[in-house]
Design goal:
This protein has about 120 residues and is an alpha+beta fold. It has three helices and five strands; from the N terminus they run αβββαββα. β1 and β2 form a beta hairpin. It is globular, with a radius of gyration of 14 Å. About 25% of the residues are buried.
Length: about 120
């Protein structure tokens, strides 16, 4: 489980909720930035590439991520996920993030274990 006290010492940790899944490793999140400051951002998963929708396993990776988001809410209605994010150093027009649920499950690890990492 993620310790919120430790997590929020670093300013790039946010509580988020899913808006929609674009593909297996890219999604739009509603982000609670604190102090009644909210945004909607497209986020790419940090450190893991899944297949594009036009490639083999692309549709399955998207379905896996969509189901992971639905199954890992753990009864929390608003902002059930935690992300640690930064600007992508390869493309400064996007953000990359690690994604966890409130129980500490890590999306990238689960995608990797399910065989959706593009290698």
């Amino acid at each position: 489980m993620i310790d919120p006290i430790t997590a929020f010492k670093d300013p790039w940790w946010y509580l988020v909720d899913i808006d929609y899944v674009k593909d297996g490793d890219t999604f739009a999140f509603f982000i609670d930035k604190g102090m009644r400051d909210f945004s909607n951002e497209s986020i790419r998963l940090w450190g893991l590439d899944t297949w594009e929708l036009s490639q083999p396993l692309g549709d399955q990776a998207k379905v896996f991520t969509s189901l992971w988001m639905a199954d890992h809410r753990h009864g929390i209605k608003k902002y059930p996920f935690v992300i640690h994010t930064e600007k992508d150093k390869q493309s400064f027009n996007r953000y990359i993030a690690d994604v966890w649920c409130s129980q500490g499950h890590h999306l990238a690890d689960d995608l990797r274990q399910a065989g959706f990492e593009k290698v």
